[in-house]
């Protein structure tokens, strides 16, 4: 018999004891996760991982903290699942967490695309009708300048002062845009 089987036989029918042992498992995982997280952080500091990463990629990133957090939270999660499994409710709780996570991801995806889709549709409209093109001088509210780049999502305008302004295409189709005529002098 294994230790887990002996423990299961001991706690069989005693729900309070099962909760206590599950709590001990979870607390042990919290302690272990904290210790291993600190060890990973110290090891990464010792080998100067952040500096090595910066030298290679020229991107400042605190890899010590990221790696130690990943290790810690993975151990916390394993301990949490192990304690729930010991009480016999792991599948129910994990199904709930999975469902909640899926709903959260879908909401975040919807919110991230809510501005992208109208800009994309407006970009198709602007390109298909040919109303605006690079080199045109436009005025939109207080913004006046020359279009230097036009794609399906946004338009880059350079003002007389040399400022670059990125205008979402949905604004170009939603609001009144004045297209200045090029000065033509007749002789």
Produce a short descriptive summary.
64% of the residues lie in helices and 14% in strands.
Roughly what fraction of the amino acids lie in strands? 5-15%
Report the structural category: alpha+beta
**What are the low-pLDDT stretches, counting only 5+ consecutive residues below 50?**
183-187
User: How many separate domains make up the residues?
Assistant: 2
Radius of gyration, taken over Cα atoms and rounded to an integer in Å: 30 Å
- Helices, by number, come to 7
In total, how many beta strands?
5
- Major β-sheet, in short? 5 strands, antiparallel
Q: What integer is the average pLDDT?
A: 86
Overall body shape: elongated
Percent helix = 55-70%
Q: Could you give the order of strands across the largest sheet? A: 4-3-2-1-5
The sequence of SSEs as H and E is HHHHHHEEEEHE
Gap from first CA to last CA: 105 Å
Chart the SSEs and their pairings.
Layout: H1 3-11, H2 15-46, H3 49-57, H4 63-87, H5 90-113, H6 116-129, E1 137-140, E2 143-150, E3 154-159, E4 164-168, H7 169-174, E5 178-180
Helix pairs in contact: 2-4, 4-5
Structural summary, described in words:
With 187 residues, this protein is of the alpha+beta class. It has two domains: 111 residues, no CATH class; 63 residues, SH3 type barrels (Roll), CATH 2.30.30.60. Helices cover 64% and strands 14% of the residues. The protein has a five-stranded antiparallel β-sheet. The longest helix is centred in the first third of the chain and has 32 residues. The radius of gyration is 30 Å and the shape is elongated.
